[in-house]
Batch of 2 targets.
Target 1
Amino acid sequence: VDVTLEKIVNLAKRRGFIFPGSEIYGGLANSWDYGPLGVLLKNNLRDAWWKHFVTSRRDMVAIDASILMNPKVWEVSGHVANFNDPLVEDKVTHQRYRLDQLLEEQGETVTGLELSELQQKADALGLKSPAGNELTEPKRFNLLFETFLGATEDNRARVYLRGELAQAMFVDFKRVMETMRPAIPFGIAQAGRVFRNEITPGNFTFRTLEFDLMEFEYFVAQTEWEQSFDYWLGEMQRWVTTEVGLAADKLRVREHTPEELSHYSKRTVDIEYQTPFGWRELFGLAYRTDFDLKNHAEASGQDLRLTEAKSGEKFYPHVVEPTFGLTRLLLMVLLDAYDEEPVKSSGGNHGPGETRTVLRLKPYLAPFQAAVLPLSRKEKLIKIAQGLADDLSRHWQTDYDETQSIGKRYRRQDEIGTPYCLTVDFDSLEDQCVTVRERDSMTQERIALDRAVPYLHEKLSDR
Ligand code: GAP
């Protein structure tokens, strides 16, 4: 099928996955709220990641740090000086753009260029804004969001909302070592919200000003970093294909050029996904060397080294960092799972010649694993259906829906990716059975009411 971003935006809004933030006040540019289904899907993705990379491993611990940190952290990490984009403004509309992106759209190669070099290229091309107007001179625009602490105007201190999770893993390194005594190689993981004052957010939730991130810093001996890098690249690919279910042929690995590397990295690769708007970064993997620990040790005066067991020598561990954008992943999951198919028969109670939209999500990741649908609102049916929904809710996220025709209800469950619908009908009163309809095949099976839980356990046990 032709999956467009527009279709995903519509589905997400219509079915309550994601909608514009502050909508009743006209919204706030590029802010998005996760609705009742979006939050379930997001939590499921996060839980899957957490289980796979944190709790099921013996070499991983986790933290949950403050979003506001001492501003020294961001000075020492290099973000205050280096975490910026080249900003230009349309002199008429005052719309802001990233000059590197405008030049790239003209086919120019711009990675790693200084501001003056970008300006030269723009001058040589006679570059105008997309609206055809003059542009201002480029200036460096820092992506860290600033805010102020303190009650009164005159003693307010400038602080930053965290721009990445990683810094807390370095700043808390000493405490984690003291309390958990892990031996290298080991990782410190975190999942949470980060903030970046992006100049050109867009493509729905692909690039936003605040987003959820899941990442870990994996501490290794310097000699081990390449091996660790290869291992984590394999693990990231394995997780996103086998556990999340993204199509392998829509994923590729792209190596960063030396000019493109972040200020802290010696090697970075992106795992990219083929979106309707081109190949785009999904996850990143970076070798951060001992850059962060060393800088924080020097600036704080704290010893952040480990001691070699045999020789007793002190050393800085090196860091390999797999990073997973959660909200970006959720968008890719919706794009990847979206399908439309013609429905020939009335199987599944779609009309003949109709097309159904179905989200082919991994069952355990879907907002609901099951939905209970009484065929009518007759009290006797509702009683059985609600009892069944209560039973299922103890095991899975279960939807209960008694509104509209059964055809429309199936259509909704297909669109939100619910793998199993259990319909209670008038025969159920006699035979104590329900009809189970499977999302992808639309096949229907009649099972005993009291077998519903073991039946779904068996069906949902596979990832
Ligand atoms: N600690 C390393 C780090 O933060 P990054 O490449 O700057 O690395 C990590 O960001 C991930 O966060 C990306 O791979 C992407 O999935 C996601 N991401 C980055 N900027 C984003 C934005 N503006 N909106 C949504 N997700 C974003």
Target 2
Amino acid sequence: MTATQDWFAQAAALQADTRPLIGGTRVDLRSTETLARVSPADGRPLGALAIGSDADADAAVGAARAMFDSGVWSDMAPLFRKGLLMALADAIDRNRESLALWDSVEMGKPIGAALGDAFAAAHIFRFYAEFADKPLASAAPTAPSLIQYGRREPRGVVAAITPWNYPLPNAALKAAPAMAAGNCVVLKPSELSPSSALKLAELALEVGIPPGVLNVVPGLGRTVGAALAAHPGVDFVAFTGSTATGRELMRLVAGSGLKPLQLECGGKSANLVFPDIADLDAVARDAAHRIFDNGGQLCVAGTRLICHRSLKDELVERIVQHASSLKIGHPLDPETTYGPLASQARMQAVLDHCDAGRTEGATLRHGGERLLADSGGFYVAPTVFENAPAQGRLAQQDIFGPVLTVMAFDTDDEAVQLANDTPYGLSATVWTRDLSRAGAMAHRLKVGRATVLAAAPNSMAFAFPMAAEPYGQSGFGAEAGREGFEAYTRLKAVEMHL
Ligand code: ADP
């Protein structure tokens, strides 16, 4: 890996260009308004973000529509579309350092993790490129004079609105299946971290993907994002972000004609630990990863540890040890495993949750405070609370930060009841070696993704996630896997009498 000094030198030389990329060219924004941005690592200015407007969103939708209607992309032989997306995946690999650097600088992700994100993004493009030319249609058994078959067609213009926590993988997870299916995309990355998405769109052009297939318009949610959602020229809206914004998008979409929406929103994922586990330290290590990786800023973060009472004290002790051993520091230092939170607002929100936890009587076992304040960065200590009231803020709300709430149970029914007792339903983890219990838990938990751990996950047992749909306030619509590709297609039934 590049040495620390090199990352700092490269970061110092970065020149942000956050103008939108529309129809294959960088265009000047129609508005002169800007958003001041600061580095999460040290609070220093990062360069202003030009704020787009309805007119910029409209121009991007126009470019995507023109390319889609031309048929150059949507009617291209799928084999060639696949080839271009594979070439884009290779280009992501070749540029992984610069892509990772942008995400690390803009949202404070440790550089090692950001390099992993770039690897993941290339993998996502390869996975979906393969779908471009695979037969997914169905045909009915019919009399000889009749042919009936189902055909999957692209939806048209897709608006993808993405958050800052995994800037590049989130962009890929929407753009890759959408493009593979033959759609043209307008991507609105988060205002905190637009540069890797812009770079991705530049790479798409470099490898020969036609201009207008992938357009990127940075800007605020309430301006560019809202304009895209409400735009009558958009055929599908794919969103990852907070539940509040998801709700707002449903309103905007409802007011602008009928178009489908896919929402992946907040979560409050439970991590259930049963007494038949073999290796408590493996559980502790995994639980610490699930809540402290990326500073807990992920929708599937394992925020609630729901642990059998007989193990709880020992497990908490070990999780606290893991929290203490994290290497907290500047995200551009390759040794860092735990960086700052992405913004001052995020840091303040997480600290407010910690205060609320203390006020509602929870026991603080670790953290709960700002760290490295002298650096000017937005660091919050990895935090562990116990004895939080089940209906209180800590146990119920999506904190989107490194705060673990530990709860104890005595019976399996109680564990399920606790796990299902939030408005969210994105994912859950179950530690058990008992096959019957594993099956029962996987089916009874009201979540889109249920992971059973009979042993610590093997890092070499790496597979692309299957499609899943969340429960409750975590959203709806399939993401990932095959169905996550099909979501970007429209099913047409063709009937031919011969
Ligand atoms: P987070 O709190 O994780 O940033 P948000 O839901 O605020 O989650 O943001 C996720 C994405 O949604 C970002 O790209 C943001 O700009 C966008 N967004 C925020 N508000 C709106 C809105 N009213 N309409 C459309 N997009 C929005």
